[in-house]
Amino acid sequence: MKSSEQVDVTNTPERRILDLSQIGMQSALSLGRFHYTRVAPGIRKQCHANWLVLQYALRGSHSYYVDGKSLEIRGGQGLRILPGEEYSSRFQKEQRGDLVWLILQVNPLPVGADLGMTETGVKDVFARLLDGELPAEFLFGEDLKASIEEVFGAWERRRDPLIQELIRNRIASVVLASALCLENFEAEEMESQNSGRVGEVMRWLEQNIEKELTVEEMAKVAGLSVPHFFREFKRFTGTSPNDFLLQKKVDRAAVRLAEKPPPTVTQIAHELGFSSSQYFSTVFRRYRGMSPTEWRSARSPSSPS
C-alpha cells in the first residue's frame, strides 16, 4: 500500500498534475486531472495520514473502494477521501472519462489566513470538509467546474503575478464551493435524481439488459425526444446511453464469469444480446482491459477456460 506523503506531480499524455507550491499555495498541494479515452489501470491501494483528497467526476463513471465501502461517482458528483482512509479501484479498471482531484494538506491545519480567507473562515471550511458525519459523496455545479477549467487554462501563464492571483482565487473557490456542497447535501438528494426520467430509463436498462436496445426505445421510455433524452442522459451520467448500456452488460458479464461452474463465454454473449462472442470479447476488453477468459482466470486461476 502506498503511504508516502510526497505529492505525485508526474505528468503523462493522459494525466496532468499542477504543483500548486509553484505559485506559493500552502494547504492546497496539487490539482490533477486524467482524461482517459480507453480503459486504464486502476488506482492502487493508498492511504494518506495528512491529506484530504477531493475528487470531481466531470465525465464518465468512476468506481472506488473507500474504507471498506464501494462508491461510484458520475458526472457532476464529487467524493471526499478523509485522512487515514484507504482507497483504491480494487479490481476495477479506470473507465473512459474525466476526473479531477485536489489534494489539501490538513495535518496540521493551516495557521492564520489561508486560501484568501480569514483564519476563522479557514477553520470553518476545513471543519466542514473533514466532518466524518457528512456523506462521502456530494453534488457540484457548473460554477465549481468552471473554476477548475479556468485553473488548467491559466496554468501555462502562471509566471504572471496576476495570473497567480487568479489561480489561487479559483482554487480557493473550489475549496469553498466543495464545503458549501456538503452543507446543502442531504443523503437522499443524490438518490432522488434516479427518480426522474433518466433514472427510470437506467432502471429499465438494468431490467432489459439482455436485449439489443436502441436510443429511440430509451427516449420513448423517458418520454423525451431523442436529442433531448441524449442530452439529459449524458448530463446526468457523464456518458452516452449506448456506452452506459455496454458498461452495464460488461458488469453483468463479470459477475457471471465469477460463478462456479462458470458459463462459457459464448453463453454469456448470447444471454446479454451480443451478436457474437467475438464482439462480446472486444467490448469486454474495452471496458476491463482484458478478455473475458483472462478476466475469469485472473479471479479464479483454477477454473477451466
UniProtKB/TrEMBL annotation:
Gene3D superfamilies: Homeodomain-like. It holds the Pfam family HTH_18. The keyword DNA-binding applies. The keyword Translocase does not apply. Keywords: DNA-binding, Transcription, Transcription regulation. Residues 199-298 form the HTH araC/xylS-type domain. InterPro entries: AraC_XylS_family_regulators (IPR050204), Homeodomain-like_sf (IPR009057), HTH_AraC (IPR018060), HTH_AraC-typ_CS (IPR018062), Tscrpt_reg_AraC-type_HTH (IPR020449). One of its GO terms (molecular function) is DNA-binding transcription factor activity. This is HTH araC/xylS-type domain-containing protein.
